[in-house]
Amino acid sequence: MTAPTDETAEAPEVKTPPIGKLERPDNLATTLDVSTMVDPDGGLVDRGIFTEEAVYKQEMKRIFARSWLFLAHEDQFKRPGDFFQTFMGEDPILVSMNRKKEIKAFLNSCRHRGARVCRADFGTTKNFTCTYHGWSFDLDGNLANVPNEYAYGEGFDKKDWGLVEVPNVQSYKGLIFGNWDPNAIPLEDALGDLRWYLDAFIDRDPEGTTVVGGVMKWVLDGNWKLAAEQFATDWYHVNMSHASALMVMSPTGRGPKKEIAERPGKQFVSPNGHGAGFPVHERNRFDNSVVHDYYDYDALRERLGDKRVTGPMTNGHATVFPSFSYLPVNGSIRVWHPKGPNKMEVWAWTVLDKSMPEEVREAQRLHNLRTFGPSGIFEQDDGENWSECQAIAGGFITNRVALNYQMGIGTEKEDPDYPGTTSELFSDAAGRSFYRKWRELMSTPAWHEKEGN
């Protein structure tokens, strides 16, 4: 017997679907009081925040469900239909350009049975079609086609079953962020004073930035916070952890000179949890010789000011809370995607000035690969450290021994040359601020926990 189709048979009478409503049981929404697990004033952190499944689940709903999270770079979208698949926390996300050339983001999950409507990492398409039952969605997330739609009856309205859209998608100088909170503060306000430091990286060129070399991805054992906080606050590890890499990079093969290795610097401390650190020196320069020779440092001083050129423009590190980090010296940006309390997936891009000649772009791309690519000489050191910290953190006694974040307590101050609050280069100040913001969000109901949401 041949099944009826929309074109060949009269649709049978189907009753109108009832209006449905679901309510999740209260015991699934249980929250933990983690306020005593972090003491930012005393510089102590309970190791359980890196290992406990219940803490991790609460991070998903109170950190990642209401923070500005990096999605993609504008250069990845050039024409309608261009898309990129990523994550917000552990939620799969589709970022795409619609026919009006607007960037939108959607939950990559079909409203029918929940499969992904797109499985490709990136590409160009006219619509997104779920391979399970064929529900198809247009570039604005609307449900456009349902096979055998007659079977749902007259009360079924495709307008009610489009993809779930991320309500807030905003860009800052080419960097696209998303936020699930419909009432989130604007992205620029959330970045705050960090913009001054970030601009030293992404605003060197009046033409903006571009992405080269695609997206590198690798998995590490370790909690996502270990990576995020290091990039926010930790220059302290450089001379020890990266000693062999610094020897390889130095002209003599013996490592940097004492006055370079121990040069002073600054650490930016944000009340929003962001952090940045950088040496301050008149001879700060880009590591790669081709890139160094390309730049006109006097012109950069005219554009960015002397304090940024001798500070955060070249060497340094930074994190945009909670999980986006960057390294100006080689054009590396990365996201620490959480994959459970004991694992993270690193996604890294190489972002360069748009007006760079091809040979300079290639030199910086290769330099990034050699230093902070998946097998980079610096990246390997960092991954080993995080994995080592995580590997033993589950021990019964080990897990109950507090961690020390006390370096630089009391050094935070206002400096007229640098926006916001700063500390010394060798300091845990931004780390303490990172965990202060973490504690605040973890202890405060998010938008989706309030009545009416």
TrEMBL record:
This is 3-phenylpropionate/trans-cinnamate dioxygenase alpha subunit. It comes from Bowdeniella nasicola. It comes from the Bacteria. The keyword DNA damage does not apply. GO terms for molecular function: 2 iron, 2 sulfur cluster binding; dioxygenase activity; iron ion binding; monooxygenase activity; oxidoreductase activity, acting on paired donors, with incorporation or reduction of molecular oxygen. Keywords: 2Fe-2S, Aromatic hydrocarbons catabolism, Dioxygenase, Iron, Iron-sulfur, Metal-binding, NAD, Oxidoreductase. The keyword Metal-binding applies. CDD domains: RHO_alpha_C_NDO-like. InterPro entries: RHO_NdoB-like_C, Rieske_2Fe-2S, Rieske_2Fe-2S_sf, Ring_hydroxy_dOase_asu_C_dom, Rng_hydr_dOase-A. It holds the Pfam family Rieske. Belongs to the bacterial ring-hydroxylating dioxygenase alpha subunit family. Residues 68-166 form the Rieske domain.
